[in-house]
Amino acid sequence: MSAQNPLIQVEGVYNAYGDRLIHRGVSFEVQKGEVLAILGGSGSGKSTLLRSLILLNRPIKGTIKIFGEDIWKLKESQRHKIFQRIGVLFQFGALYSSLSVLENVGIMLEEHGFYPPRNIVEISKMWLDRVGLSKETYELYPYELSGGMKKRVGLARAMATNPEILFLDEPTSGLDPYSADKFDELIISLKESLHLSVVMITHDLDSIKNAVDRFIMLKDGLIDFDGTLQDFIRRAHDRPLEEGNLFNSTRGEKFWKGM
Ligand SMILES: Nc1ncnc2c1ncn2[C@@H]1O[C@H](COP(=O)(O)OP(=O)(O)OP(=O)(O)O)[C@@H](O)[C@H]1O
Questions:
Q1: Cα 42 to averaged position of ligand 1 atoms, centre (Å)
Q2: How far is CA 186 from the centre of its chain?
Q3: Beta carbons of 102 and 125 less than 8 angstroms apart
Q4: Residue 24 and residue 222 in contact, taking contact as beta carbons nearer than 8 Å
Q5: Residue 11: enclosing H or E segment and its boundaries?
Q6: What does the pLDDT read at residue 217?
Q7: Res 201: pLDDT
Q8: For the CA of 44, the nearest atom of ligand 1
Q9: Which fold has domain 1-85+203-259?
């Protein structure tokens, strides 16, 4: 991992809705192969920040560099090229309800135009297999899937175009603890086998313990914490009530055990 060439560099970012400032100078970096979580209370601006990183919400001030490119200064066509190098898993999978599982993955490959049409079905199947979905699921429609299965299809779709950075919005929310653990394992295995960088919004303490290298915490429009879990635990000893309020997850048993 090179600290000199971060994949993502966020510098002095301000976001606002109308007169209301959401971020007041947010700065952080993400290195290659790193899993970074974005934490913060409800309404602290996690989704807004994620939307700025995935080219959906232009900051009013500051710079965001991805792969060294100042993404909000690029022309639309160049921005599209950056977008093709990232993968996004939205909170509820954001699957097309009228398409089968296999088609949901295939359509992403068709849109990106990376592979010849004759290979799209095989590549889609390969990714569905990689995220643990059997061939019995290929012809199912989203309404026939559990929450965990939808997230896996969403992950297969996000990964199918070989992204260098994967963005995840609350990947384990709504999953039972077993499925959430399995999802964490999947993220770790993707990260390790592909040297992928991952940025995820989460409230899930166990995910932070299982899968995350470092996390940032948003508060009052700024970054209130940037460090590892061990750094955070040290700080929590001094500020137990404040830190305890930050998580609204029912998971967390492993987090609090053995710390
Ligand atoms: N499109 C919008 N227009 C106006 N205000 C918005 C818009 N999107 C979000 N907000 C407001 O901006 C603030 C930050 O929202 P954001 O969704 O980024 O927070 P969050 O930390 O992701 O919250 P949560 O954990 O509850 O999802 C909230 O007060 C929200 O109501």
A1: 8
A2: 13
A3: yes
A4: yes
A5: strand 8-17
A6: 92
A7: 92
A8: 21
A9: Rossmann fold (3.40.50)
Q: What is the pLDDT of residue 1?
A: 45
Give me the amino acid identity at 251.
R
Helix, strand, coil percentages, rounded to 5, for the chain: 40, 25, 35
pLDDT of residue 2: 45
- Find out whether the beta carbon of 43 lies less than 6 Å from any atom of ligand 1: yes
Centre of ligand 1 to C-alpha 113, Å, is 34
Encoded amino acid at 19, one letter: D
User: Hey, which of 22, 58, 218 would you mutate to test ligand 1's pocket, going by the most ligand atoms within 8 Å of its Cβ?
Assistant: 22
Does the interface ipTM go beyond 0.95? yes
Residue 17 beta carbon below 6 angstroms from any ligand 1 atom? yes
Does residue 47 have its Cβ closer than 6 Å to ligand 1? yes
* C-alpha of residue 246 to centroid of ligand 1, in Å: 16
Residue located nearest, by CA, to atom 24 of ligand 1: 42
> What is the strand order of the sheet 222-227 is part of?
86-89, 165-169, 197-201, 35-40, 214-219, 222-227
- Taking CA atoms only, the protein residue closest to ligand 1 atom 26 is 42
CA distances from 155 to 69, 149, 168, 186, 255 (A): 25, 10, 9, 10, 25
CA 56-93-113 angle, to 5 degrees, is 65
Give start and end residues of each alpha helix (H) in 195-252.
205-211, 229-238, 240-244
Q: Mean pLDDT for each 10-residue chunk of the chain (259 residues)? A: 76 95 96 92 92 94 95 89 88 82 90 79 90 90 89 89 90 79 84 88 80 91 91 75 53 54
- Cα(239) to centroid of ligand 1, in Å? 26
pLDDT at 245 (0 to 100): 53
